[in-house]
Each structure stands twice: as C-alpha cells, then as structure tokens.
C-alpha cells in the first residue's frame, strides 16, 4: 500500500499534539505577517489540515489559505474551515502568479526524485506573485548523519502497534524507512518511504536554481539560527527580482 494515506495519518497524528501544532501555526503567522501581495496562500501537501484549518480561520491569513493534497484518505478526514484542491505537487493546479505565498511542512517537498524536486520548486516559483513567499520545513542533513539508523516500536492510544525502521544513506542524502501498523482489529498497514535531505549549501543551490532567493534559514520555531544542534531547518524564499 502507499505510505501516504491511512497508514501515514493513523501513525502520525498521535505524535502531533495540539501544542506542537499551535507553535507551528504561530511560527507561520509570524512569517506571513506583512505579506505584500494579495491573494491565496497554499498549504502544499496539507494532509488533514492541521495547519490550514486554524490559519484560515483567524489571524493574518484568515480567509486566504487553500490546501493542496493528493491523498484521498487525508482529504476524507480533513478538518473543516478551509478550501482544498486535490492535486499533485509535481503539477501544481494553480495559475501563473496566482499565489501570494505557500508553505510546506515535514519535508513534504522532498519525498520524490532530485529531478522532481527541481520541477516542484520551479513550479512554485511560477505560481508565486512578485513579492510572494515560500516557507518550508525539513530536517538538517547533519542531524541524520549523527543518527543514521533508527528503530522503534510503540503502542498508540487507539491500541494500534506501530513499528518502524529507517536508515540514512549519506552518499545519496536519502533516509529510507519502512513503517508497519497493526490495528486493534488485526489489520496490517505497511509502507516504505524515501525522503531526501540536502546539506544546506546544496539546498540553497537547489532553491536558487528554481528562480527563488533565500530570505532566511532558521533552526527552530523561535527563529533561532541553524546550528549543528538544530532539530529543524526552516527556509523562507521568494521569487528573484529582475
């Protein structure tokens, strides 16, 4: 089965507390405060909408957020309060220069091939208005280097048992993993993933080659600098002028 779908939603939500979501939403609000262009801001790979729903309900982005999600299961279980389009990150269903901004969380932009990542970023650039803003979060390459292999088992609140193993290949920058969820009814959901993590200089080069200029790089939700101890790599970028 596909990794993104019921397996991902049911195995990920228990680890995303209301406090975590609130802090991430607050960070995004600060990023988009004072956004120049009018128009919508796209949540790229919105999932069930834990960011899109609160951002579209109140605050600086109220009434401006539109979700983009390919997975039907996530869409069927999405939170109310925001419009959504079913579509693929690799072929954005938005008109040229129609978006004031966009954001993506949890390495959503980098679950494909290197060629596809270039296409995705170029297409985001196409969709952004002059003065628009892209914000995305991923994990620092160096953090994966420190702990290239991981394995755990956990009993989730609904009684499901979660098992996962992953291994990071430094040469390719890919974290390969397999996740297995055994539900209380005995159903077994399993799937594999491969997420690409770029060293910062390569990531900057990738973003700039797509026609974007890097505005900032943060190492956490308080806007702190990226260091070897950072758990996050959050980048803000906008269309290159001229």
From TrEMBL:
KW Methyltransferase (keyword) present: yes
UniProt superkingdom: Bacteria
GO molecular function: methyltransferase activity
Domain Methyltransferase: start-end pairs: 41-132
UniProt keyword annotations, A-Z: Methyltransferase, Transferase
Pfam families: Methyltransf_25
The keyword Transferase belongs to this UniProt entry's keyword annotation: yes
Full protein name: Methyltransferase type 11 domain protein
Lineage: Bacteria, Pseudomonadati, Myxococcota, Myxococcia, Myxococcales
